[in-house]
């Protein structure tokens, strides 16, 4: 499985590609940061993020895209920029028919380090160890993107089985009727 992880941001959008499967060694196929000038117009910055993600998709041909789920912060401006960059990443993937998964920061930290409260240094250290790198990817946005890809590789099979189980349970369950509610009989002659 090849996954492009995207740590969304307007100034620095981390991107990382990981190959692997559950129970097998992981391999980094690429890592980087898409940068935009802070003084540029927001629309121009979003175009730069889009072009950067499209280049990564063209070059690495991932099967899945994992994006960090935007969470509430006190700084509304930061949240808006992150959400906009996240939407651009999802749009780029959707255009190509690639499945997109959203993972919260705590899910990613827990998957990679074992603790949903791990710090940036711990995430970077574990990404370095798991991918057998010489040094942690810099800046932290790049390491976070790789962590997102790793998280998806490890969580996707279980999530898929869970979705299949839920679908099978829905199909097997008898149709539920609400007590005391009668369905109207079809009327003849009215079309």
UniProtKB/TrEMBL annotation:
Q: Name one GO biological process term.
A: DNA recombination
Q: Which residues cross the membrane?
A: none
Q: What are the names of the required cofactors?
A: Mg(2+)
For the region Disordered, what residue ranges are annotated? 165-191
Pfam families documented for this protein? RuvC
Residues that, per the record, bind Mg(2+) 2? 68
- Which keywords does this Swiss-Prot/TrEMBL entry list? Cytoplasm, DNA damage, DNA recombination, DNA repair, DNA-binding, Endonuclease, Hydrolase, Magnesium, Metal-binding, Nuclease
Binding-site residues for Mg(2+) 1, renumbered to this chain: 7, 141
Compartments, as annotated in UniProt: Cytoplasm
Q: Which reaction does it catalyse?
A: Endonucleolytic cleavage at a junction such as a reciprocal single-stranded crossover between two homologous DNA duplexes (Holliday junction)
- At the top of the EC hierarchy, this enzyme's class is hydrolase
Task: Provide the cofactor note recorded for this chain's UniProt entry.
Answer: Binds 2 Mg(2+) ion per subunit.
UniProt GO molecular function: crossover junction DNA endonuclease activity; DNA binding; magnesium ion binding
Q: Where is the composition biased (Low complexity)?
A: 165-174
Would the keyword Calcium be found if you checked this record's keyword annotation? no
Q: Which PROSITE patterns match?
A: RUVC
PANTHER family found in the cross-reference section:
CROSSOVER JUNCTION ENDODEOXYRIBONUCLEASE RUVC
Q: How does it assemble?
A: Homodimer which binds Holliday junction (HJ) DNA. The HJ becomes 2-fold symmetrical on binding to RuvC with unstacked arms; it has a different conformation from HJ DNA in complex with RuvA. In the full resolvosome a probable DNA-RuvA(4)-RuvB(12)-RuvC(2) complex forms which resolves the HJ.
Q: Which NCBIfam families match?
A: ruvC
Belongs to which family?
Belongs to the RuvC family.
Function comment? The RuvA-RuvB-RuvC complex processes Holliday junction (HJ) DNA during genetic recombination and DNA repair. Endonuclease that resolves HJ intermediates. Cleaves cruciform DNA by making single-stranded nicks across the HJ at symmetrical positions within the homologous arms, yielding a 5'-phosphate and a 3'-hydroxyl group; requires a central core of homology in the junction. The consensus cleavage sequence is 5'-(A/T)TT(C/G)-3'. Cleavage occurs on the 3'-side of the TT dinucleotide at the point of strand exchange.
Output this protein's name.
Crossover junction endodeoxyribonuclease RuvC
The record lists the organism as Streptomyces benahoarensis
What is the gene called?
ruvC
């Amino acid at each position: 499985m090849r996954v492009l992880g995207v740590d969304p941001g307007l100034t620095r959008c981390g991107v990382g590609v990981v190959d692997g499967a559950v129970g097998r060694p992981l391999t980094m196929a690429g890592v980087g940061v898409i940068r935009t000038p802070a003084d540029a117009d927001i629309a121009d910055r979003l175009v730069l993020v889009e072009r950067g993600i499209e280049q990564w998709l063209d070059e690495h041909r991932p099967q899945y895209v994992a994006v960090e789920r935007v969470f509430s912060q006190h700084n509304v401006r930061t949240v808006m920029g992150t959400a906009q960059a996240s939407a651009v990443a999802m749009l780029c993937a959707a255009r190509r028919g690639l499945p997109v998964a959203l993972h919260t920061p705590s899910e990613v930290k827990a998957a990679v380090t074992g603790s949903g409260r791990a710090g940036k240094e711990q995430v970077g250290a574990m990404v370095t160890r798991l991918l057998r790198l010489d040094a942690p990817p810099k800046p932290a946005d790049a390491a976070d993107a790789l962590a997102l890809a790793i998280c998806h590789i490890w969580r996707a099979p279980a999530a898929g089985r869970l979705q299949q189980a839920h679908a099978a349970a829905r199909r097997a369950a008898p149709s539920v009727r609400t007590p005391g509610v009668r369905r109207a009989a079809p009327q003849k002659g009215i079309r």
